[in-house]
# Entry
Amino acid sequence: MSIASVEITGHTEAVALLPTTGGDLIPHPIFSGYVSDIGDADKIAARTKEYEDRFLSPFIAAAHRVGALVHLDAVHFAPHGLIDVQLLDCDFLACSAYKFCGPHIGILYGRQALLESLTAYKVRPASSVPPGKWETGTQNTEALAGLGACLDYISNLGGPTDTFNHSVRSRSTLTSGMQWVVAHEQKLSHHFLNGAAAIPGLKVHGIADPGRTSERTPTFGLTLAGIHPRDACERLAERGIWSWDGHFYAQGVIAQLGLAEHGGLLRIGFAHYTTIDEVETVLESLRQL
# Structure
């Protein structure tokens, strides 16, 4: 069984699975706009029995047409949009709560029939039925409590700012909270992309059109002419701005962009608690580099 993986993602999960499949990793390149070519969906799916991609329904449908399984790595998307596994029709989806203000705890969704039929590498006393067969023993109860508090927090976003209701959590309130997050972050992205376009030598890799903020998250991969990403990162830190540089575990896309020998990218990200004034502070600091 081989695993196909889009180059724009990190390879951690795919590479970890390879020894159990006896197959190969089939990297799929990105194209203009830094997204995968949906027109190749059937061709890619035909080469594998497991396909790993992110939130692209045509790929999922193509994979299922050839009997492949679809695993979605939602770790980056989870803080920025509402996830609906039934709408996606994926077989597996994984993320981690620390990405959306929760504790370090992993989250895995899987179709019930698959979780029942697949072999789990577990300790002997563990249950032989899901979800227990997929756990690693005693549950991390304090992290689970923190996850509940995190979901309460998200459920209250966009509501009255002077009250916090611990009993409102439901799919409806989580949807409302995430809709507020999406709307706010699109405003942040629009402001940043407009300002970035006017900074000489600054290149935004990926979707840079302010009119297409609904197609991306507010995490930006940047290069600055004549400035190494590590130098830019350190100079921003001197101004009180935390950023990151390198390949961010997505070595394939960095290599494809020809940036591997040049330090990769400077990464700047915003979240639902970021303000427009803070985005402007970042833009002004980038202008001064």
